[in-house]
Amino acid sequence: xxxxxxxxxxxxxxxxxxxxxxxxxxxxxxxxxxxxxxxxxxxxxxxxxxxxxxxxxxxxxxxxxxxxxxxxxxxxxxxxxxxxxxxxxxxxxxxxxxxxxxxxxxxxxxxxxxxxxxxxxxxxxxxxxxxxxxxxxxxxxxxxxxxxxxxxxxxxxxxxxxxxxxxxxxxxxxxxxxxxxxxxxxxxxxxxxxxxxxxxxxxxxxxxxxxxxxxxxxxxxxxxxxxxxxxxxxxxxxxxxxxxxxxxxxxxxxxxxxxxxxxxxxxxxxxxxxxxxxxxxxxxxxxxxxxxxxxxxxxxxxxxxxxxxxxxxxxxxxxxxxxxxxxxxxxxxxxxxxxxxxxxxxxxxxxxxxxxxxxxxxxxxxxxxxxxxxxxxxxxxxxxxxxxxxxxxxxxxxxxxxxxxxxxxxxxxxxxxxxxxxxxxxxxxxxxxxxxxxxxxxxxxxxxxxxxxxxxxxxxxxxxxxxxxxxxxxxxxxxxxxxxxxxxxxxxxxxxxxxxxxxxxxxxxxxxxxxxxxxxxxxxxxxxxxxxxxxxxxxxxxxxxxxxxxxxxxxxxxxxxxxxxxxxxxxxxxxxxxxxxxxxxxxxxxxxxxxxxxxxxxxxxxxxxxxxxxxxxxxxxxxxxxxxxxxxxxxxxxxxxxxxxxxxxxxxxxxxxxxxxxxxxxxxxxxxxxxxxxxxxxxxxxxxxxxxxxxxxxx
Length: 699
Prior knowledge:
The protein is α/β, with parallel strands linked by helices. Strands 1, 2, 3, 4, 5 and 6 form a 6-stranded parallel beta sheet that branches. A 6-stranded antiparallel beta sheet has the order 15-12-19-10-11-16, covered by helices on one side. A 5-stranded parallel beta sheet has the order 22-21-20-23-24, sandwiched between helices.
């Protein structure tokens, strides 16, 4: 089909970490093989498209960030369509299909996509294709792949219907022929994260978008006798299957080394939409004992000479680098150890077949190679299947080549999930596991996502400690595994721990850190305000805080702020405050024993603590977890929430705590109201809607 006859559709994406954009690019890349052309834009580029006048079908790919917010790049768009003055037929002319990305570990799964989908429906827009909701908890590809496969037939039908509406009933070349037997104008495809397989109805998709790799195309070495699969080894049926593998992504980046010298860009240039502040780390305290399972650190930043402002409950982001030794190791494997300090120029490859190719925005126009690998690319990212497909072409050993093909194939989906995704395998792990794989630098820039700044909850009050910002974190540890033979620390937490190592005073365990050593080390930060996770505006309203482990962090700021308010406004009425805290061992990781001070001055009216790993000789075993203590305080919890209009805050681990706390609250409401669980769940949903049950959680 010639270029002029390709039918257009509008493709919009909104991304936080690059996944939605990568999926949109995959859709645009496949479109050409189906006689279609995607006009692709970020939702934030509102000057480049106009949904009010759009006649062609629209495809939207949108992620979710935080605890259910649209990504930053969708905020302006969402604000615009949420305008209450828009009439219910505002988008009556619009046909669209939407793919939402999310993580079911979080309460508001795919809420970014759901919000846009719901509002477009309210404004009269019509689906030409069912909404897909992909779950990163089990693997986005389980929904994304079949959703894209079914998209082409639905698009062609929508375009055909559009032609008929315009009175053009003549045959529409090859597009018409591929849908002449379609019984409906709208092609329905019900998708959920439980999707296991999909029969491809459009054989054109199989022929053009997927390569069939047969076993006899490769001279395989004799299969090992091991019966257990691994990252580098498969077993039947995968090892004996013909494979459906993705089409090879076109190369589009060219890297040129330059002789010129100069300076690398300032880190602030890496953050497009925020004001960054370079601030000194003035103090560091280790809050846990040396024999604690996790190491928790408290850092203090000096923000006195900046315009940085925050409220207790807010978060902020730290711009962090990749691990120096990992960067050096990657340079060595690439054969570029001697060129790390050379300046490079990154350009779009002339004659590339990639539609709308442009240099990634997170790559500076001019910097050293080491700067790009250290500050710009997430070298720890779990490789996507498109990346694995590209690595196949860089691999010389036949057995290694076959295994990489399996891992990116439909047939190897389970192996990909187990040995790569769930094992947190990164590029370095792959290059060690498949030593004949020698990718180019340009390939890494094409496929590695942007190195994201890391978000932390503020653990202080500007009212209590003017010009100072505290935050608390666990140093993340990734133990070695069969797929990843080396242990690693978290990218940001490991870097911060190394940065402040000279300052650390183990087990000082203090809120007030006077007397600790000062530092000249600086880090770059930018604000990430939380619109809801704040103290009640009315100080007389009671509230409950649940924060085990480092989840206590924002509540220290709450209590510091409340203490200062009490000191400054002795005539105010203050509601009661409850704090539920838990950790493993009272003597090893009770992070803030000075909470007792807040109790003594009545800033905190009730403190309930539990220790999950401490043994007890009591006849009745003490509660182990925060949800257990909540149940023991059921009458007070129900009173605060139901009778006194109180607030309930939860901060900490989503997977192992927040859901259990939610279940406990439902049980409490059900018991105290003498109602069934369904009714209690409705009450909890109403509390969430009213912003009185608030979460700051992570997985």
